[in-house]
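$ ./design --mode recover --in tokens.txt
reading tokens...
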């Protein structure tokens, strides 16, 4: 397992603007947006030429996509690509990113585990591969402290998740089942009312009292806390070693086959980006916030980004065993049939990059391409 240190905060960044509408789910939301205005600068004339003139990279304007935000903002990925230009494209929706990848308008993407599994299974293993990890953690259960003081108090309450079957929804349904409570996975009705709510509107729903809490990723969780909520549970505490995959790096199998040198260069960039983030937490936080501001016109307020940033771990390790666990939870909740995940990973190029950098290789948990 590759070494990775939590993103820590040494001092607050003084920003005063309010939270933008960038509170995306881990895999769901609105349509894609081309990032043409922020496409990397023209490569130097003597830059190394790779097999593709450009690479189209997708990501979400979300702190759990810190590797993409910082890697693009600081030019760390572009530097490794030489004469190959980056064409960034931001998404707020896992399905639309998968559609772009499968449709040939996207080459590489940062995305959550649930849409990765769904995309792989729907294409019968023919369209994508997970080629790296990117982030762990950053998911919390935040509640109205006047209505909910203990975990047992959740019974009979309305708790939001981003969307039916998304990563957080699956985790919450599994937690409910382990409590011995029942909820219909389709309607969300049961001992707890699971209210599927887009993260962009969850803060308003919370303030208006139409929900009593939410199991959500950052920065939505910290926004709810800034609005008076209380963290009742950090999902990190439920996992062995306090790690679970929240963001992967995926690639079109066609692009991987035709341009392995470009994919390897992108992975060198992501590995170096994660190393830079962990070595420069304050600068990285400011960089991510600057990228978010460029996306939505406003940076995150310090009282939101500071706690959110601390709860996310960037890591090259895809934490493959946790993806398998999340898949098993979705099956248990009857949201999906038992999937065949054999071949969903191809970590060959990542492990080549890690070895060259003197870092430990990572495991695909037996789910690698043959």
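writing sequence...
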């Amino acid at each position: 397992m590759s070494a990775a240190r939590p993103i820590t905060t040494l001092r607050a960044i003084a920003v005063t603007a309010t939270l933008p509408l960038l509170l995306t789910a881990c895999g769901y939301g609105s349509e894609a947006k081309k990032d043409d205005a922020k496409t990397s600068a023209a490569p130097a004339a003597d830059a190394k030429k790779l097999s593709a003139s450009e690479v189209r990279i997708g990501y979400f304007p979300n702190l759990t996509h810190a590797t993409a935000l910082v890697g693009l903002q600081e030019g760390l990925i572009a530097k490794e690509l030489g004469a190959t230009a980056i064409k960034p494209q931001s998404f707020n929706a896992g399905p639309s990113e998968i559609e772009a990848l499968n449709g040939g308008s996207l080459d590489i993407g940062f995305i959550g585990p649930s849409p990765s599994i769904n995309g792989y299974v729907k294409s019968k293993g023919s369209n994508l591969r997970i080629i790296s990890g990117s982030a762990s953690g950053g998911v919390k259960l935040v509640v109205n402290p006047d209505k909910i003081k203990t975990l047992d108090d959740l019974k009979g309450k309305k708790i939001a998740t981003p969307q039916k079957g998304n990563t957080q929804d699956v985790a919450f349904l599994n937690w409910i089942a382990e409590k011995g409570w029942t909820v219909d996975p389709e309607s969300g009705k049961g001992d707890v009312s699971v209210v599927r709510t887009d993260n962009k509107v969850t803060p308003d729903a919370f303030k208006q009292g139409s929900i009593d809490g939410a199991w959500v990723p950052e920065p939505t969780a910290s926004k709810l806390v800034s609005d008076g909520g209380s963290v009742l549970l950090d999902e990190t505490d439920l996992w062995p070693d306090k790690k679970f995959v929240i963001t992967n790096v995926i690639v079109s199998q066609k692009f991987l086959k035709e341009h392995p040198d470009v994919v390897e260069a992108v992975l060198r960039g992501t590995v170096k980006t994660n190393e830079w983030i962990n070595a420069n937490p304050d600068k990285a936080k400011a960089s991510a916030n600057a990228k978010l501001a460029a996306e939505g016109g406003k940076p995150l307020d310090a009282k939101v980004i500071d706690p959110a940033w601390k709860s996310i771990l960037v890591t090259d390790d895809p934490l493959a065993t946790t993806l398998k666990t999340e898949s098993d939870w979705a099956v248990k909740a009857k949201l999906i049939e038992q999937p065949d995940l054999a071949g969903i990973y191809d970590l060959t190029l990542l492990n080549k990059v890690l070895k060259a950098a003197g870092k430990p290789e990572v495991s695909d948990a037996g789910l690698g391409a043959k």
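exit 0
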